[in-house]
Write a sequence for this structure.
C-alpha cells in the first residue's frame, strides 16, 4: 500500500515530468546547483540512502539485515521530509548497481526504476566496489566485498585527477586468486577483508599499506560519484536500470558444499 501511494505521489506532477523530458536522460537540462538527487544502496546487510539538494545533504545508514524492502520507502519519505522537498522535485535517481547480494541489488534497482518511471527522470547506476573506494578516503584501493560461497567481489582503483581509474576491473574469485595490482601503498577495504582477512593479506603481502574491513558501499559516496556524471549527461532512461551480478547462481548445490 505504501509503495502504491508513494508511486502515485511521484507521478502526480506531470508538469515536472514534462520539463525533465519524460523517460529520457537526453532531454534533461541539468543546472548543477539546482540538482536534487536520491541515492539508494541495498547490496549488503545495510540500508544506505542519501539525498542531496541545492541546500544540503541528508543520509540514512543502518544495519537492517534482510529488511531493505520493508524499510526503504519509509526512510526515503523521511529523508524527503527532512529536506523539505517533494518527491516530484527529484531530478535523478542513483542506485547501487552491484555486485552484491542478489535480492538487495534487485530492491535498489526496482525502487529506482519505479520512481524514475513515475517522475520521468533519469537513473544512474554506480558500482558498489567503486563506492567502497570512494568511501575509503584513500587514493589506491583494493575493494573486496564478501560474495559468500568462499569468494569475494573485487576491484582495484586508483584516483587520478579526481577520477577513479579501474586498475583491476570488477570480478569474482577466491581470496587466494585475487588479481595483484602493481606497486605498493594499497588500502584493502570492504567486508571481504573481514570474512577472508588472512587469505587476502597473505595474497597481497607488502602491497597492502592498510586494511579497513568496515568500509561499505555508502549512498553518500555514490552521490559524489554520480553528480558529475549526471552533469555530463550520463543519466539513462529508467528502463535501462539493471543490476550487475557477476555471478550466475546464488547458492552452492549440496554436492558442492
Amino acid at each position: 500500500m505504501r509503495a502504491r501511494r508513494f508511486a502515485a505521489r511521484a507521478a502526480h506532477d506531470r508538469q515536472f515530468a514534462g520539463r525533465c523530458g519524460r523517460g529520457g536522460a537526453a532531454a534533461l537540462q541539468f543546472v548543477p546547483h539546482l540538482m536534487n538527487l536520491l541515492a539508494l544502496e541495498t547490496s549488503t546487510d545495510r540500508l544506505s540512502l542519501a539525498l542531496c539538494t541545492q541546500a544540503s545533504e541528508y543520509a540514512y545508514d543502518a544495519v537492517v539485515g534482510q529488511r531493505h524492502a520493508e524499510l526503504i520507502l519509509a526512510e526515503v519519505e523521511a529523508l524527503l521530509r527532512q529536506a523539505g522537498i517533494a518527491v516530484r522535485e527529484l531530478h535523478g535517481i542513483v542506485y547501487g548497481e552491484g555486485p552484491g547480494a542478489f535480492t538487495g541489488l534487485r530492491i535498489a534497482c526496482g525502487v529506482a526504476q519505479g520512481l524514475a518511471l513515475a517522475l520521468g527522470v533519469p537513473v544512474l547506476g554506480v558500482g558498489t566496489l567503486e563506492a567502497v573506494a570512494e568511501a575509503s578516503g584513500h587514493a589506491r584501493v583494493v575493494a573486496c566485498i564478501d560474495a559468500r560461497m568462499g569468494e569475494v567481489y573485487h576491484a582495484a582503483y586508483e584516483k587520478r585527477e579526481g577520477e577513479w581509474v579501474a586498475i583491476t576491473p570488477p570480478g569474482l574469485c577466491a581470496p587466494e586468486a585475487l588479481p595483484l595490482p602493481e606497486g605498493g601503498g594499497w588500502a584493502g577495504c570492504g567486508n571481504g577483508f573481514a570474512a577472508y582477512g588472512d587469505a587476502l593479506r597473505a595474497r597481497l603481502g607488502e602491497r597492502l599499506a592498510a586494511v579497513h574491513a568496515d568500509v561499505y558501499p555508502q549512498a553518500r559516496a555514490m552521490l559524489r560519484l554520480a553528480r558529475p556524471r549526471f552533469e555530463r549527461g550520463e543519466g539513462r532512461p529508467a528502463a535501462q536500470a539493471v543490476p550487475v551480478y557477476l555471478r550466475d547462481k546464488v547458492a552452492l548445490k549440496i554436492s558442492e558444499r
Q: What stands out?
A: The longest helix spans residues 102-119. Helices lie at 2-12, 14-20, 68-83, 102-119, 128-136, 192-195, 197-204, 219-231. Confidence is low (pLDDT under 50) at residues 10-33, 250-257. Residues 176 and 203 are 6 Å apart (CA to CA).
